[in-house]
Design a protein that fits this description.
Strand content: under 5%
Number of helices: 4
Oligomer: single chain
Shape: elongated
């Protein structure tokens, strides 16, 4: 059932000439997530409460933020990124 729905969506998108996925806004969303993570890791009142996010050698760059802080920052970063992509949709469509 799900496979047939995905196949129908792919066929409809291919007939429209757009493809199923539009990846133009992806760098904007990634940049907004990293920016929010950098800012939030320094401004959260208690960033070290709970288990630490295993970021390896990049841990000190992000202030060894906890898993909850990381998930919150990524969620808010995605919200801001999607809003930015929607706001820039006219500019992004002219690039094609």
């Amino acid at each position: 059932m799900i496979h047939s729905v995905l196949m129908a969506a792919t066929k409809a998108a291919d007939e429209a000439g757009t493809g199923l996925f539009n990846w133009q806004g992806t760098p904007i969303i990634i940049a907004s997530c990293l920016l929010v993570l950098l800012i939030s890791s320094r401004t959260i009142a208690k960033p070290h409460v709970g288990p630490k996010m295993p970021l390896g050698p990049l841990g000190p760059l992000f202030n060894d933020i906890s898993v909850a802080g990381f998930l919150g920052a990524m969620s808010f970063g995605h919200i801001l990124g999607v809003l930015a992509v929607m706001g820039l949709s006219g500019v992004l469509n002219n690039v094609q």
